[in-house]
Amino acid sequence: MKKFVTLFLALFFYVTCLHAQNCWKSVSVGDGYTLALKEDGTLWGWGLNNQGQLGNGTLVNKTVPTQIGTATNWSQISAAHNFSTALKNDGTIWAWGDNTFGQLADGTTTNKTAPIQIGTATNWQSVSAGYNHIAALASDATIWLWGNNYSGQLGDGTNTDKKSPLQIGTNEWKAIHAGSGYTIALKTDGTLWTWGNNTSGNLGNGTLADRNTPGKIGTAADWQKIYSAPMAMKADSLLWGWGYNGYGQLGNGLNGSLNNLKNPAQIGASHWKEVSPSGTHTLGIKGNGTLWAWGYNENGKLGDGTQTDRSLPTQIGTDSDWKMVNANYYHTMAIKTDGSLWAWGTNSNGQLGDGTKISKSSPTPVACSGIALSINTSLNETAIEVYPNPSQGFFLITVDPAATEHGVVRVLNMTGNIVLEKQFSEKQFEVDLTNQPEGIYYIQVQTDNTLLHTGKIIKRH
């Protein structure tokens, strides 16, 4: 007897898979797209891909997590405006996407749709992608910058773009972050340094003048963490912020450009574990694991279920198991201690990864497998038909004729890995799993980058 893979079955999958496949390790949010690492060292991306920033060899947007290559040794990621960079466990650095200012460091200005290695060095420790430039820290405590230098953000005393890594200073650096036309860095002695664009007081030096060499901020020597919006945390876990405050993103109860800060100011008295400022809104995790947000709330990117701006930290939900959070201008992503990934905010390019393009104003789960967890899908029960199910390996798929143009079917195993992917353009086609072990698999049907259906199939002897 034929068995329909219906929305009911998809909902069953959503509930069971939500807790069974929590596999995310870290996440980085770019302008309209997302990159994430799984615990197995694989790299995934979704959302806007007009410059190849997803790194999957295409320029096609994705609304669900899509694996980038087959490597399993990725260790750190940094998504930016429309290009990306990442590190591998072997200490190499890679980049892809837009290359207008030479930020991919291959000596050209040609975009790349797949990761390319930058140089041959194997001692990179961290990397940060700014709006159009990259900053990296090597294991010998040296910092290197390249890409756009319009405002002096490379720190070499010029305003000339660089198409290859350029060392700044000596072996004295602990951390570095690239921002929107400026750079913030931390020395091993605990002092804070900035350079580049200073239009809104981004450099925190009491002026609005740009500078193209590193400048020390104040006299404090107990800075511990830095962020690119800009914000910084001291050894006592207290948070400090400065620069643009048009939406209350500094969290001091004020908003509007007249309340921009030219010098670092302490933000409340709370002790923070992690913070992610985007430039328009800020997310933070306190020491007790609770999640807080403040600033601009366009399309619900604060995650409090509203679109109301907040000029003071506001708790998001009541959960106390948040592990990390990352925010960009348009959306926010966060990971819990169980490895589950959550998204909210603008979703016009599918950057939330839930298989839709519907914005969310509260945290929404993202599947480990690359199959959407959203249940807000208008499917009829005859959208897809699978026969037989269970099967010994051959499954005949029948799809609504209106959904056969530019179709892709994917089959994933229980660990979330894609075991089969094929295009289709006919109403009926066959899926062959004879070379796969018996067990439960998940089938995903997608056309024109729109997720049509998700369901479960069973292979048995």
UniProtKB/TrEMBL annotation:
GO molecular function, one term: guanyl-nucleotide exchange factor activity
GO CC annotation: cytoplasm
Keyword Cytoplasm in annotation: no
UniProtKB keywords: Guanine-nucleotide releasing factor, Repeat, Signal
Residue stretches making up the RCC1-like domain: 22-218
Signal peptide limits: 1-20
Keyword Signal: yes
Residue ranges occupied by any Secretion system C-terminal sorting domain in the UniProt entry: 386-453
PROSITE patterns assigned: RCC1_2, RCC1_3
Pfam short name (any one): WD40_RLD
PANTHER family, A to Z: REGULATOR OF CHROMOSOME CONDENSATION
Official protein name in the record: Alpha-tubulin suppressor
